[in-house]
Amino acid sequence: MQEQFLDLFRFDEDLAFDDLYPRYIKNLSPTHWTPLNIAEKASEFLAEPNARVLDIGSGVGKFCITAGFYNPQTEFYGIEQRQDLFLHAELAKTNINLPNVGFIHGNLTELNFEEYDHFYFFNSFYENLKPENGIDKKVKTSAELYNYYTDFLLKKLDQKPSGTKLVTYHGSKNQIPSSYQLIDNSFHWALKMWMRE
Ligand SMILES: C[S@@+](CC[C@H](N)C(=O)[O-])C[C@H]1O[C@@H](n2cnc3c(N)ncnc32)[C@H](O)[C@@H]1O
Prior knowledge:
By secondary structure, this protein is an alpha/beta fold. Helix content is 33%, strand content 19%. The longest helix has 16 residues, at 143-158. The protein binds S-adenosylmethionine. S-adenosylmethionine binds next to helix 4 and strand 2. It is an enzyme of class 2 (transferase). It catalyses: guanosine(46) in tRNA + S-adenosyl-L-methionine = N(7)-methylguanosine(46) in tRNA + S-adenosyl-L-homocysteine.
């Protein structure tokens, strides 16, 4: 990480960070990308030396980049279905030069969950229920897809070993397997920290 980027990560300086991206991406930030202070808090719980953390639906990489900046000994990966968002994430990561951050372009259903130890989830499937509040119209959305992705993720998380950590931001309880216990919360319950029993 390079010294000249320290200013981007100042607590509550989201506007400066969002300047890394073009205007249309910046405009989406308040609704769709994790704020810096939330990402810092979430990653504090998820980070462990040599662990691999996955952001399920990584957008333009704001969570992974912030988490990677604050936790250099942990690897943060993101999977993103929209190609333009994935490319913006790659570009931002390359500019900041964070060796512990990586992005994958694809659908989370194609991913090998065994390669990841802990997980971050910012209500990524919600646009299937409220497409009018979504990022754009580039992907198919439907209530069926919401159920399909939710069931898929529930199964994958449930298959993880005891001690697996999960942080949800604006998530709902029906997206958490019953095998996960609520450990903590922050930001008036918007951020929840879970652990597999
Ligand atoms: C609310 S945004 C969060 C972005 C990022 N995690 C952050 O916190 O800044 C959710 C993202 O999940 C992506 N997404 C939704 N369903 C997905 C799927 N099935 N596979 C991959 N990405 C998905 C969306 O395209 C969107 O960019």
